[in-house]
């Protein structure tokens, strides 16, 4: 009997404890939701609702007011006439959407690797060969381009590479070279190189496939210059979290600078590099200010600086095709979502997270 009574009491106590734990958890969850609700409401209002409303608009002919339901016509236009079209004189040609996608891809491929590699080399050199006070000074110097007004910095770059009064052409003339058109040159660099060695671009291939134009290369130079400071700052913060004992032990085993970088710094800095890669890809595909100011909002010369965000902007504000601009925005969202997912699936396996 005593054993039965003891078991019943223990069951009651355990059930009472479970009820208390459940009550405490539900109370904590309610408190947590109260704290998180303002942020969730802001996300819902300024992120998810515009996205859903943009999807709705993309099915309509919409010129600032709703006019006519089009169904999937805007999306059909994206993947037909705006992607490729047939010209009776020149054959198959690349449409404006395809050209803007190519410009965006050229921009991303031409800026992300260079910016990340340069940032890593600068951060590694600062971290290993400068004291804390000097590091702080150089952090500020490298971070200044990132916090400088982009419009003001771009105007300075436009003056430097102006074909008539720019100091870049003045320097070329000084050393006996021919001046360049720079920001007004629409010719792709591959076509320009072939011309320089006495060859020509194949007539049966669209000229847009010949790489970025010289005007787009100037925008790339500006993008690398303005983004290095942010990357260096984040990488220095990541390097400061690497235990110094690992470097000391490796040096005692005879490791040189390359070994330290290859087998200690890069693996332990991989989470930071992975984060910067994702941020850089998203930022390059969403870049707008540089393209708008450099080209005056026109995407010129000859559309060679017409990025996808600028093309969306022109369809919205210039052509008054709000429905089609919304469909293009959904396309950009899908592209970024897929690129981020692919990066996580392919590259995250190689990221070394400390446990």
Automatic annotation (TrEMBL):
It comes from the Bacteria. SUPFAM superfamilies: MetI-like (SSF161098). GO terms for biological process: transmembrane transport. It holds the Pfam family BPD_transp_1. The chain crosses the membrane at residues 32-59, 105-127, 139-161, 213-239, 260-285, 322-342. Residues 101-343 form the ABC transmembrane type-1 domain. Belongs to the binding-protein-dependent transport system permease family. It comes from Jeotgalibacillus campisalis. One of its GO terms (cellular component) is plasma membrane. It is a multi-pass membrane protein. It is found in: Cell membrane. The keyword Coiled coil does not apply. This is ABC transmembrane type-1 domain-containing protein. Keywords: Cell membrane, Membrane, Transmembrane, Transmembrane helix, Transport.
């Amino acid at each position: 009997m005593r054993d039965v009574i003891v078991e019943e009491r223990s069951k009651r106590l355990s059930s009472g404890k479970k009820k208390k734990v459940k009550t405490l958890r539900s109370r904590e969850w309610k408190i947590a939701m109260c704290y998180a609700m303002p942020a969730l409401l802001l996300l819902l209002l300024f992120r998810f609702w515009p996205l859903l409303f943009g999807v709705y608009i993309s099915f309509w002919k919409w010129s600032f007011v709703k006019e006519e339901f089009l169904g999937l016509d805007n999306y059909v236009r994206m993947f037909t006439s705006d992607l490729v079209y047939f010209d009776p004189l020149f054959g198959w040609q690349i449409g404006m959407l395809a050209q803007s996608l190519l410009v965006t891809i050229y921009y991303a491929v031409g800026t992300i690797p260079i910016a990340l590699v340069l940032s890593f080399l600068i951060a590694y050199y600062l971290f290993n060969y400068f004291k804390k006070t000097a590091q702080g000074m150089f952090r500020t110097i490298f971070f200044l381009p990132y916090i400088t007004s982009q419009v003001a910095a771009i105007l300075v770059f436009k003056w430097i590479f102006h074909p008539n009064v720019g100091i870049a052409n003045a320097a070329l003339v000084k050393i006996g070279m021919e001046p360049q058109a720079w920001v007004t040159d629409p010719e792709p660099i591959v076509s320009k190189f072939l011309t320089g060695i006495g060859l020509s671009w194949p007539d049966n291939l669209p000229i847009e496939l010949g790489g970025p134009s010289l005007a787009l290369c100037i925008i790339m130079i500006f993008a690398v210059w303005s983004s290095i400071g942010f990357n260096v700052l984040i990488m220095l913060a990541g390097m400061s979290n690497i235990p110094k004992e690992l470097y000391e032990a490796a040096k005692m085993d005879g490791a040189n600078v390359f070994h330290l970088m290859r087998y200690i710094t890069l693996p332990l800095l991989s989470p930071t590099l992975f984060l910067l890669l994702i941020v850089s890809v998203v930022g390059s595909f969403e870049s707008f200010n540089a393209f708008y100011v450099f080209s005056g909002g026109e995407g010129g010369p000859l559309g060679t600086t017409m990025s996808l965000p600028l093309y969306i902007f022109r369809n919205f504000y210039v052509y008054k095709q709000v429905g089609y601009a919304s469909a293009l925005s959904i396309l950009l969202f899908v592209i970024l979502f897929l690129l981020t997912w692919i990066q996580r699936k392919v590259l995250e396996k190689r990221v070394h997270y400390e446990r």
